[in-house]
Design goal:
The chain is α/β, with parallel strands linked by helices. Helices cover 32% and strands 17% of the residues. The chain has 6 helices and 6 strands. The strands form 2 sheets. The chain has a 4-stranded parallel beta sheet with strand order 3-2-1-4. Strands 5-6 form a two-stranded parallel ribbon. α1 crosses α2. The longest helix has 12 residues.
Length: 171
């Protein structure tokens, strides 16, 4: 999975930014990002309290911290992060719209775009795709969605017809 982190997290320059990883699990991805891409701070949040306790015991990296929390009710102030990373866990959330709303809440509005990269997007539920369709029909001016998937044939036609598809080779 570290190759996936390298691929996703190097899409923008993270140096000097405050980064949040939602669904940090056992912390390897967050640690990798902090050690190699040098953001100002890196916070991993996970629903599993045992995972965050493991991370707090296992990683002693300056600027890296872990916190227990819910992706649909993030325990952070508004506009408290510059970048949010979510790798391989969004399919576990009960409500993708609530998760995306929380991400929008913790990101500042100062940047030109808010980019949402949804990995394993083929695992979104019918309701999630419906909520996404509502957003795509009247998209906010500063929002860009990247739906990453190896199974785009599982996307509803209503989503495909409103999307630009770019096939990316193996990382």
């Amino acid at each position: 999975p570290l190759q996936l982190y390298r691929h996703v997290a190097t899409a923008i320059d993270l140096s000097g930014r405050d980064v949040l990883e939602v669904g940090s699990g056992r912390g390897g991805g967050a640690s990798y990002v902090m050690r190699t891409l040098h953001p100002r701070s890196m916070t991993g949040v996970d629903y599993a309290s045992r995972a965050t306790a493991f991370c707090q015991r296992s990683y002693d990296v300056p600027g890296l911290r872990f916190r227990h929390g819910d992706a649909e009710n993030l325990p952070f102030d508004n506009a408290s992060f510059d970048v949010v990373i979510n790798v391989e866990s969004s399919h576990c959330y009960g409500s993708m719209p609530r998760f995306l709303g929380e991400v929008a809440r913790v990101l500042p509005v100062r940047d030109r775009y808010r980019v949402f990269i949804v990995d394993e997007a083929h695992q979104l539920t019918k309701d999630d795709f419906g909520a996404l369709l509502t957003i795509l029909e009247q998209p906010p001016a500063q929002v860009v969605f990247i739906l990453a998937s190896t199974q785009t044939d599982k996307f509803p036609a209503s989503i495909v017809s409103r999307s630009l598809q770019a096939d990316i080779g193996r990382v």
